[in-house]
Amino acid sequence: MKTTMLTFFFCLVLPSFAMGFQQLATIPLSMMNQSVDDMYDGCNEAMAKKAASVYFPREIKNQPFNEAWRVAKSFAKTKYNNRKDKELTLNQVQAIYVYTQEFPRFYENLNAAVRVGADSYMAAFPFHAFHFWLTSAIQILSDNKQCQTTYRRNNVRFRGQVNQEIRFGYFASSSKEPSLTTFGKETCFHIETCFGASIENYSGKSESEVLIPPYEKFKIIRIETGSYKSCCDPRRGRAKLPLRALENDPKFIPSPVCGALWPANMQSLSTPDLRPAHRLR
């Protein structure tokens, strides 16, 4: 896997009379060490076989996955037949479509399980097949691509420190458009992602969406306050944001197939529930 070179710009929207960031922030940012962050490094082929033959037949019996997968089938088939990225399989294309479709809304169930599923990953995690297909699709679409600047708006407030290393710890949607305030007016993340992938060609929505995987690690470069209109304005001093080289080094998580292990050198700061508000994925 490539080394992550990225800038993480955290812009918190507060009213002008606010006394300080720490007083009003509600959700702490952290490394999310309880998240399912498997990269399938070294066992991609083995997992591809097991996802199709073992996990999917078992997991498709459960709702709401069954309904979401069924509804997306014909739409995903069309996307697959017209795809430019020939490495993508039909299951990977359908996973992207299922994640982005508005009805039935499956991404909330997926991310709720991903955020806290590390301890039960080998036994009771309910979405092995889907997690693999979505993760591997992101990896294909981001491979050999340039890092890109994206924005993520929320209707909740977060707490963090400059130079703090964090992860979202779930599949985090972001956009190439900085002004999508319909997704939130409280917090805006200005991100440079090197592992995120543009999924607009396979999405169930017509948005310039970039999906960030749970394992990508960021460093908070700056925290600013301002109005929701000016926050994340790309014209505001982007050159002042220094790049930070962060080697993507997920914690110890065994693959359900080949037992590949990653270094256990990250200490969790907390494991907050970062359930998105409203439509935000």
From TrEMBL:
Matches recorded under InterPro entries: ADP-ribosyltransferase_ARG (IPR050999), ART (IPR000768)
Keywords recorded for this protein, A-Z: Disulfide bond, Glycosyltransferase, NAD, NADP, Nucleotidyltransferase, Signal, Transferase
Signal peptide: 1-20
UniProt xrefs under Pfam families: ART
A GO MF label: NAD+-protein-arginine ADP-ribosyltransferase activity
Keyword NADP attached: yes
Enzyme nomenclature, EC number: 2.4.2.31
Residues spanning the membrane: none
Enzyme class: transferase
Similarity-based family: Belongs to the Arg-specific ADP-ribosyltransferase family.
Protein's UniProt name: NAD(P)(+)--arginine ADP-ribosyltransferase
Source species of the chain: Mugilogobius chulae
